[in-house]
Amino acid sequence: MNRTAMRASQKDFENSMNQVKLLKKDPGNEVKLKLYALYKQATEGPCNMPKPGVFDLINKAKWDAWNALGSLPKEAARQNYVDLVSSLSPSLESSSQVEPGTDRKSTGFETLVVTSEDGITKITFNRPKKKNAINTEMYHEIMRALKAASKDDSIITVLTGNGDYYSSGNDLTNFTDIPPGGVEEKAENSAVLLREFVGCFIDFPKPLIAVVNGPAVGISVTLLGLFDAVYASDRATFHTPFSHLGQSPEGCSSYTFPKIMSPAKATEMLIFGKKLTAGEACAQGLVTEVFPDSTFQKEVWTRLKAFAKLPPNAVRISKEVIRKREREKLHTVNAEECNVLQGRWLSDECTNAVVNFLSRKSKL
Ligand SMILES: CCCCC/C=C/C(=O)SCCNC(=O)CCNC(=O)[C@H](O)C(C)(C)COP(=O)(O)OP(=O)(O)OC[C@H]1O[C@@H](n2cnc3c(N)ncnc32)[C@H](O)[C@@H]1OP(=O)(O)O
Same domain, yes or no, for 164 and 66? Predict the structure, then answer.
């Protein structure tokens, strides 16, 4: 049916808004800006906001897109929004047809490589050109890979990174992907995603091992407090610059880090952003053992293969006994941290830090 010949009803418009939320494949910034502009035009009419300052890159791009629609009538904007979403539907259909957890052997993942052999499921972050920064797709894929690993016949599950980094943490361009409901909706969606993501680590039923091949930043560090063992190359560093980014700790680190390393050492990392070497992280209990980079892979994998020969039921039951007492507390901490972060993401301190990184004015 030729949709452009029709007038989109309010119901069509609302359906399209819901479809956008279900898109798993990122349609790209240009399309997202167009969607934003059409949504604003359809609901509020021509651009009525003061023009943002030149350094307010994200809001300026949004303002430009909305303003470019001039005096397009609300009904036409609504129709154009519905047509644009419908043109994106092939990616919607194909992504929703993917059966979660059916494809663990290196296929079905855009941002990970997942393999399973010798009793070990290995999940490798695979965005080496971006230092394995975790974008929205990767959050979803890691959750999918963990859920599949929890049910497969492996004994242990390993997370590691491809390239020179373990992971540079949250992909800061995630913050530019603003839904029609604006920054508040973005912050809320991100808090929901983060809570679900960290929840997968809290509930993971088998021993979870990190093989930290290089520097780790932000959430890739905080999550380590939920792992059962952490092996690190002597090239690895551990950095949680939350205050510098106008943010606050996540991954249950506000609870696990003070317990693991003492409250004062946790303060140095989580509040003051002190970067630890692998040796320092090991001395403070965050890392289990450090290996010279030249022999790291060989030594660690020899050890892990031996672990994976242990009787599966005993291993799984022991993990449950250890985690059981803490699980409820960890979920409470996770919920609180996400709640606090939701507010932080709306702060000027956070916005300025992200804009400075994206406009190449700052790096860690
Ligand atoms: C929704 C849940 C939210 C959960 C909350 C999580 C919070 C966190 O994880 S906070 C930590 C966030 N991470 C950062 O702030 C790191 C930012 N990155 C850097 O400071 C640097 O890139 C670096 C120190 C990690 C590496 O520097 P360098 O060796 O000089 O390499 P490049 O900067 O040239 O990086 C290559 C390439 O990768 C892009 N990139 C690296 N990290 C990120 C990142 N975290 N987010 C987005 N993009 C990242 C970098 O921009 C370069 O891209 P191109 O210029 O396009 O090549």
Answer: no
Q: How many domains does the chain have?
A: 2
Find tokens 């059409």 and name the residue: 38
Q: Judge whether 266 lies within some domain.
A: yes
Q: How far apart are the first and last CA of the chain?
A: 52
Q: Which atom of ligand 1 is nearest to the CA of 360?
A: 51
Same structural domain, 40 and 180: no
The rounded Å distance from CA 51 to ligand 1 centre is 29
356 CA to middle of ligand 1, Å?
A: 12
Domain membership of residue 91 (yes or no) is: no
Report the nearest atom of ligand 1 relative to the CA of 218: 9
Kindly report, residue by residue over 196-252, the tens digit of the pLDDT: 999 999 999 999 999 999 999 999 999 999 999 999 999 999 999 999 999 999 999
Distance from C-alpha of 255 to C-alpha of 276, rounded to nearest angstrom: 19
Confirm whether pTM is higher than 0.80: no
Q: Is residue 37 part of a domain?
A: yes
Q: Same domain, yes or no, for 233 and 330?
A: yes
Whole domain around residue 340: which residue ranges? 110-360
Decide the pairing of beta strands 276-277 and 237-239: antiparallel
Q: Which two tokens stand for residue 225?
A: 């407090």
Q: Whole-angstrom Cα distance, residue 240 to residue 216?
A: 9
Q: How far is the CA of 350 from the centre of ligand 1 (A)?
A: 15
Does the residue 100 lie in any domain? no
Condensed to tens digits (0 to 9), the pLDDT of residues 303-346 reads: 999 999 999 999 999 999 999 999 999 999 999 999 999 999 99
Measure the CA–CA gap between 97 and 144, rounded to whole angstroms: 14
**169 and 309 both lie in a single domain:** yes
* ipTM tops 0.85: yes
